[in-house]
């Protein structure tokens, strides 16, 4: 609309995200921008992600500089048509920043949902529970090997306004207990089932990524009536092979120089792996019990570049809706695992995408998840 000034603000990629860094601008002042076009790379403590323009217009001002860290909601740029004068934009920027300074950046007002520790039997599990007032069965998110609940930050942040979304750290990961039993997907599924009991959830939609996909399949096997639908994102359990170099490298690399190239196997766009993400995993691996837990899980699930469990039979018996999402360029679990599945399984292969579609192609994954749980 002529004369309209549109603020471009620091996005909120995850429910607990409070600030982000402008890693780089992908558009320049004077560029004609379409809604959804790539504007900037935003770096958080976990990952670098591309911020897509919320609207169409001419990028008239880059308010934030590259390398600058700003709170969620802060003004980083301005879109406006050519007839809007520079003085009008100056006035808009001054007013916006003045109002933000007055209002402040209260996490509660900003909708931040912080994780909590839940006691499940003898174990302590970190849980992030968002959208509790939403109707219908909640969506449970299960991360993969070496990850934590923040692997789903784009999913939980994107869907929490539509459905109750629950993410958690599997035992042996993140801030959860490091007691993993025998470390098998079946044992992790049993603990997940106990978590649902603790949360008082009789029925949930389940999305599992990588190892979390195998855990989701095991959950559907032991408690089929509890699982309303399955969304498997680059899952273990549907193929034979696993990139042993990734598993070994993740466990054994103890410096940024050696760990960073291992983590880059997770994504097609290697720039998405931030220095903070690498440093965070190094710190995690130094926690008491972390390495023993990772080794136990790896031994239980993978051996000599092979996956120990084939869980395709679960899909034959499962009555609910099933969707499989896989990156065509997955370097960890080959996309061939999506071939030959039962006809009732909806398979979506995303081009130019690696092992973490929920971060690389978050909008598409969120749309596919929404379609599965609402069908």
TrEMBL record:
What stretches pass through the bilayer?
A: none
Which GO terms fall under biological process for this protein?
acylglycerol catabolic process
Record GO terms (molecular function) = monoacylglycerol lipase activity
Database matches in Pfam families: Abhydrolase_1 (PF00561), Biotin_lipoyl (PF00364)
Q: Name one GO cellular component term.
A: membrane
Mind telling me which InterPro entries this protein's record contains?
A: AB_hydrolase_1, AB_hydrolase_fold, AB_hydrolase_sf, Biotin_lipoyl, Single_hybrid_motif
Tell me where in this chain the Lipoyl-binding domain is found. 5-80
| PANTHER family according to UniProt | MONOACYLGLYCEROL LIPASE (PTHR43798), MONOACYLGLYCEROL LIPASE ABHD6 (PTHR43798:SF5)
**Annotated protein name in UniProt:** Branched-chain alpha-keto acid dehydrogenase subunit E2
